[in-house]
Amino acid sequence: MMNTFIDLSLDIYEGAPTFANDPECHVTAYHTIDSLGYNMTQLSMSTHQGTHLDAPFHFVRAGKTVEQLDLHKCIGEALLVDLSHKQPKEALQIADFLPYEEGIVKGARVIYRTDWDRQFPQKHYFSDFPYMTLELAQWLASREIGMIGMDVPTPNPVDFDPVHQALLGAEIVIVEGLANLAQIQASRFFFMAAPLKIVGRDGSPVRALAMLDDGSR
């Protein structure tokens, strides 16, 4: 059986936008074929640049760091929740996830689609997206899922602390800044978003992918 890969990642490039308080993204030619016989690039950016994941240590003092994550949480079958009807700045509620409740169980990888990635790299991409309520975050935590993924830059732009605390405090890996979820027509698919093995830190950029069999598109 043939498989199709869909890239679910945003581009990383010189000056790629990020949140105002985060480090700037720089992709700089360090050596070139003309100068030293080969090309080499220096990369400087946040651990939360573009498509990335949050480890619990991002908001939890004693939380697990990136290299301590169970990779099963970010690699394996995922459930896709279609919320593409949601409007800018509209709340995502528990009720929006109830039709998918049967698959939102202990250890599950859950990804929700709003198609907000189409607004990248515009400035309002970081502020006006449909947002997760604290009640929804607490409900997901109570279901003991393993991962929550989204095509927005963060779950909530205002109540980011309590929402992150609810999810990461339950050791739910958060994958943010996904893209191209509209290309996935199946409700379940194989998902991959492995982080770099950054010792002792809070997050990592990822190359997120969907692997679909011939009947899943």
TrEMBL record:
GO biological process, one term: L-tryptophan catabolic process to kynurenine
InterPro entries given in the database record: KFase/CYL, KFase_sf
UniProt GO MF annotations: arylformamidase activity
One of the Pfam families matching this protein, by short name: Cyclase
Domain of life: Bacteria
Name by which UniProt lists this protein: Cyclase
